Amino acid sequence: MIIEIDKIPPEGLKISKDFEFFNADIIEESAVFLRSVHSELFIKGIGEEILIRGRIKTRLSFVCSRCLAPFEFPVDSKFDLVYLPEELDVFQDKLENGEINTFFYYSYKINVKEVVLEQLNLTFPLKPLCSENCQGICPVCGKIIKEGECACVRDDSDPRLEKLKTFMKDKR
Ligand SMILES: [Zn+2]
Ligand SMILES: [Zn+2]
Known about the structure:
By secondary structure, the chain is α+β, with helices and mostly antiparallel strands. It folds into 2 domains: 2-134, no CATH class; 137-172, no CATH class. The protein has 3 helices and 8 strands; from the N terminus they run ββββββαββαα. The strands form 2 sheets. Strands 2, 3, 4, 5, 6 and 7 form a 6-stranded mixed β-sheet that branches. The longest helix is centred in the C-terminal third of the chain and has 13 residues, at 159-171. The N and C termini lie far apart (79 Å). One zinc ion binds at residues 64, 66-67, 69, 129-130, 134.
């Protein structure tokens, strides 16, 4: 969905649309979309500066990076973006103020679907976890460690260290 900058009405443009993406489109390639990405966007031009205020909602199935179990990951994200004409991208370093996300539009066009995809990718965690305190997989039996799931004794003390301790005791 391409928006032409010079066709944005003075009062702004409201867009409400569901976008379909494939998991190959997103940075989290093992994720599966459980529904399309509902997007509410308001686009307004102030001179050559284009402001985009938006909200995106969707649900994905992620794979936990510790226990490898699938879990649902809801997305409900709001954002405020500023798009500037391409001539200004040489000043990108000077525009970084940390507060507002500044982007650039090229050939007087903005691809709304790309804007949504970019913002969607920003909502993903670096290491997806099914829960903050996920214990991962048992190194003994390979099962997911959850209460009562396995009865293995996970002793991570080094047997050589035990031997050394005994040795030291004998010396005393
Ligand atoms: Zn997990
Ligand atoms: Zn186990």
